[in-house]
TrEMBL record:
Signal peptide span: none
Gene: galU
The protein, known as: UTP--glucose-1-phosphate uridylyltransferase
Top-rank taxon: Bacteria
Catalyzed reactions: alpha-D-glucose 1-phosphate + UTP + H(+) = UDP-alpha-D-glucose + diphosphate
E.C. numbers: 2.7.7.9
SUPFAM superfamilies hit by this protein: Nucleotide-diphospho-sugar transferases (SSF53448)
Length: 302
């Protein structure tokens, strides 16, 4: 029987080596996207979808994450004494955003292993997994739609994005069948980062999942796969292709705005895209950006 989902799991144990040296002493999830750390966008998305019980699967040197969602008494006192209510409200907002818990991953054995570390907290309930590298624009809700599909079908649900065929080797790729809903497909197979030219489709799995608790049983017997890690994709493949004892796997095809903060170039693009639409920044930033763009040399220019 379908149940109301209240728990979100956010794996944040990665080392963030693509952003060294910035991430030598700071978690990559705390890198600012305009004026909020990337992780706050993800937690806000979970809360907006009704998931207020958040478990972060952390690693070493991730104390800044816990500090961000905790009280900052000295800072609050200084802002209060100055009468700076606007900044004080922003500081307090992240503190009360959700009921946030933490568990260490320990060995870095992959995304599947990180999800498995949530078993004791989640129990026998469906739950959502949100990856911190993907920011979904709050004007294009994805997670709420996934929760709706999971409740209606009592299935496991993953988010899918149609990508250029030249990019399929960078993602887990799904084989799909259509359903009565235009944005919902049934997944009949999954492959993790297929070799160029071998992908079964261009439907890429992106960092949002709504999982039934049976995923833990599957992960416990999933051997290390690509990269020597326990791949969540391999466990989902079993659910998609095996006996329908766990409801199968469906995908919600997302056609909204998504910002990838896991790559340096895409991270910069994300900042610009979000900043130009901000009410408090866009009015000044857009004209400057247009003028700056005019000063750039075109392709083939010296």
């Amino acid at each position: 029987m379908a149940t109301l989902i209240t728990k979100a799991v956010i794996p944040v144990a990665g080392l963030g080596t693509r952003f060294l040296p910035a991430t030598k002493a700071m978690p990559k999830e705390m890198l600012p996207v305009v004026d909020k750390p990337a992780i706050q966008y993800v937690v806000e998305e979970a809360v907006a979808a009704g998931l207020t019980d958040v478990l972060m699967v952390t690693g070493r040197n991730k104390n800044a994450l816990e500090n961000h969602f905790d009280r900052a008494g000295e800072l609050e006192a200084v802002l209060s004494s100055k009468g700076d209510d606007e900044k004080l409200e922003k500081v307090n907002y992240s503190t009360g955003l959700a009921d946030v818990h933490y568990v260490r991953q320990g060995d870095p054995k992959g995304l599947g292993h990180a999800v498995l570390r949530a078993k004791m907290h989640v129990g026998r309930e469906p739950f959502a997994v949100l990856l911190g590298d993907d920011i979904i624009d709050n004007r294009d809700p994805l997670l709420a739609r996934m929760l709706e599909v999971q409740f209606a079908l009592n299935t496991t649900v993953v988010a899918l994005l149609e990508v250029d065929p030249s990019q399929t080797h960078l993602y887990g790729i799904a084989t799909v069948e259509g359903t009565a809903d235009e944005d919902v497909v049934k997944i009949t197979g999954l492959v993790e980062k297929p070799a160029p030219g071998t992908a079964p489709s261009n439907f890429a799995v992106i960092g949002r999942y709504v999982l039934r608790p049976e995923i833990f049983e599957v992960l416990e017997r999933t051997p290390p796969g690509k990269g020597g890690e326990i791949q969540l994709t391999d466990a989902l493949q079993e659910l998609a292709t095996g006996p329908n004892w766990a409801g199968g796997v469906h995908g919600v095809v997302f056609r909204g705005r998504r910002y990838d903060t896991g790559d340096r170039l895409d991270y910069l693009k994300a900042i610009v895209q979000l900043a130009v639409d901000r009410d408090d920044l866009g009015g000044d930033f857009r004209p400057w950006l247009k003028e700056f763009a005019r000063t750039l040399p075109g392709e083939g220019d010296d």
